[in-house]
Amino acid sequence: MGISALTPPKRPEDVTETLLEFPDNRLLIELCGEFDRNLAQIEQHLGVHIMRRGNRVAVVGDKIPRDTGAAVLRGLYARLESGRNVETGDVEAALRMSVPIFGDTAEQIEMFQPGKYEIRTRKKPVEPRTEAQKAYVRNLFDNELGFGIGPAGTGKTYLAVAVGVTMLLGGAVEKIILSRPAVEAGERLGFLPGDMKEKIDPYMQPLYDALNDFLPQKQLAKLMEDKRIEIAPLAFMRGRTLANAFVVLDEAQNATTMQMKMFLTRLGEGSRMVITGDRTQVDLPRGTASGLTDAERILKDVRGVSFNYFNSKDVVRHPLVARIIEAYDAADGTAG
Which of 102, 126, 312, 313 could form a disulfide with 119 if both were Cys (CB 3.0 to 4.6 A apart)? Predict the structure, then answer.
């Protein structure tokens, strides 16, 4: 059922409304979404009531959630004015980034605007959907070496690959190199059918999936054929100097300390490097130290190196994934 356009709910005397006016009725319809689903999403999240009155929208409720809802609506409308769409995920992102202020207004929702930190791919627009993701993307553009550490589903690798594609298409780098430790293979690797590429590819599949999201298939195939995009296991990085490249090491918690040092020292002139991993998902043999943990300790004060951390609140997959992560953290005594 859509949002009521006529009768506001009964409410206490201290519950008031904020009235917003949107001049473009076509954009207002897009803002509301089919059957007012975007408004319903905001209502459910903030505990407010939203009513349409012509080209006006009234947000009814307590002051803080009411002001936050108004700021979210203004931010999403500005997004539509800039020519971008508003989907369910965009509404969720705006709600995640809403910052209530205990004053007369709520902070205007600041979505990523075109400019220095804009991610451009050939197939789809990509935007950070949480404050942590926004800070992460900013650091990937600003620093030569960046770490993204946190649980699965928080966009660490996906955003890193998106930034790499942006830099490649924009001419900032000449190639993209994506790598992962093939720890899961262990002794079983030699028993898999096919040549080395066919043995390794199953472990590299998440990286292929990200690239397929950003580049048309023919263009991706051509870039890989020309070695402007490479996907290789960590062991293949030894002895190389990676110049003028955007380099991503994924699942870095499964690199040993020596492998991590080897990889970090491959950084060449004109290159950027991103290390992503989840400290709770180490698959190394018992007693083997994770190179990600050691790098975090050793490099924390090194100039030009950024660290960004994610938690369950940054999960942008199915909402149940966030709840699963929180449950496991609580069981391990690591919540909070």
Answer: 126
Helix then strand then coil, in percent of the chain rounded to 5, is: 45, 15, 40
Cα Rg, the chain, nearest whole Å:
23
Q: Which residues of 39-56 are buried (b: 16+ CB within 10 A; e: fewer)?
A: bbbbbebbebbbbbeeee
* Segment 242-288, tens digit of pLDDT: 899 999 999 999 999 999 999 999 999 999 999 999 998 888 888 89
CA distance 12 to 34: 30
**Burial zone of 29 (CB within 10 Å; 0-12 exposed, 13-18 middle, 19+ buried):** middle
pTM score of the predicted model: 0.67
For the chain, the maximum distance between any two Cα atoms, rounded to a whole number of angstroms, is 74
175-180/245-249 β-pairing:
parallel
Nearest to 116 by CA among 100, 133, 95, 139: 139
Q: How many CB atoms lie within 10 A of CB 15?
A: 16
Taking a C-beta distance cutoff of 8 angstroms, is the pair 290, 156 a contact? Answer: no
Name the region of 33 (left: φ>0; alpha: ψ -120 to 50; beta: rest): left
The tokens describing 109, both together, are: 């929702």
Confirm if 64 and 105 have CB atoms less than 8 A apart.
no
Q: How many residues does the chain have?
A: 336
Are β-strands 272-277 and 145-149 bridged in parallel, bridged antiparallel, or unpaired?
Answer: parallel
